[in-house]
Specification:
Elements lengths: L5 E5 L5 H14 L4 E5 L8 H12 L3 E5 L10 H21 L4 E5 L1 H6 L5 H10 L5 E5 L5 H6 L2 E4 L20
Parallel strand pairs: 1-5, 1-6, 2-3, 2-4, 4-5
Length: 175
Amino acid sequence: MTHGLVIVHTGDGKGKTTAALGLALRAFGAGLRVLILQFIKGSQTYGELDALKILAEHSPQIKIQQCGLGFTTKGNKSDHQKAAQETLHLARQEIFSGSWDLIILDEINYAVKFNLISEAEMLNLIEIKPPNLHLVFTGRDATEKLIDRADLVTEMKLIKHPFQAGIKAQVGIEF
């Protein structure tokens, strides 16, 4: 029987979502059913969306869904809270559904950091997960309680970024 892991990608460096998507691709290739729920992203198109939509057209075994409203500094905070709460509700439904082997909760750590959902609500997802389901939590500033409950934690550490040299985000690299 599979031992479902709780995996956290956090830190101030680039690559948290990218690492989770690499894991999604690996899992999909191994025959696992993969769901990616994006808590914050939602107002912009990203390269990963296009790539995963192509895969999903050929297989129901992988799905990505943007659920957020984009940058939390834009718009009404209550609208962002509502979207995050709806995403949390969807995550619970999908965890209970038995339809997935791996669920990625992209940027959920930001949803907690910006008080869109509570830490307790996030941690409850670990409590309710079936023993064979893998859950991945991404985003900066993972809480100590999440880190303590996780099986695998990777911290992306910023050493150098092109933005520091005035180079703007590039299609296919940052988004």
